[in-house]
Amino acid sequence: MLRCNLTGMVYIGSTCDFKTRISNHINKSECSSRTITKNGDYEFIELFTVNIYSAQELKCYERKIIRFYKKNFNNLCVNVMGIIEDRVERRKEYEEINKEKIRQQKRVWYEKKKNGMNK
Question: Residue 34: how many CB atoms within 10 A of its CB?
C-alpha cells in the first residue's frame, strides 16, 4: 500500500518485484498513485505477504483488498479499478431494474433495422 502522510489517501497494489514497483509509482505520471507521490510525503506499507503462484491470482487478491478499501474508505482510496467496477455494478443494477424497458428498446431497434434492410 502507498499512503500519503498529508491526506491519508491510499493506493493498493501488488507486486513480485517491490523495487521496480516503487520506481514506477514515483516516476510514471499516468498511474493513479501519482495523486499521492506528487506531494512528496508518502510511505510504502507492506500489508501482506502471500504465497500466490500466478499473476492472475495475485490480481484477484489485489482486487479484493481494493474493494474492501473502496467500500470502507472510499474517499481515501485512489485506485481507478474500483471506480470502473462501481460503474459495472451500477450498470448491472440498472439493467436488472429496467429489464422490460431494455427489452422493448431492443425490439424497436431490431424492427427498424429489419425494415431498413428490406427496402
Answer: 16
What are the pLDDT digits (tens) for 63-101? Answer: 888 888 888 887 788 887 655 666 677 788 888 888 999
Tell me the torsion sign for CA atoms 24, 25, 28, 31: positive
Query: Distances from the Cα of 77 to the Cαs of 9, 41, 74, in angstroms?
Result: 6, 16, 5
Residue 32 CA to residue 22 CA, distance in Å, equals 13
Rounded Cα gap, residues 63 and 69, in angstroms: 10
Here the cell at position 14 is 501488488
Give the three cell numbers for residue 82: 474500483
Which amino acid is it at 39?
A: N
pTM: 0.59
Cα→Cα distances 21→12, 13, 39, Å: 12, 9, 18
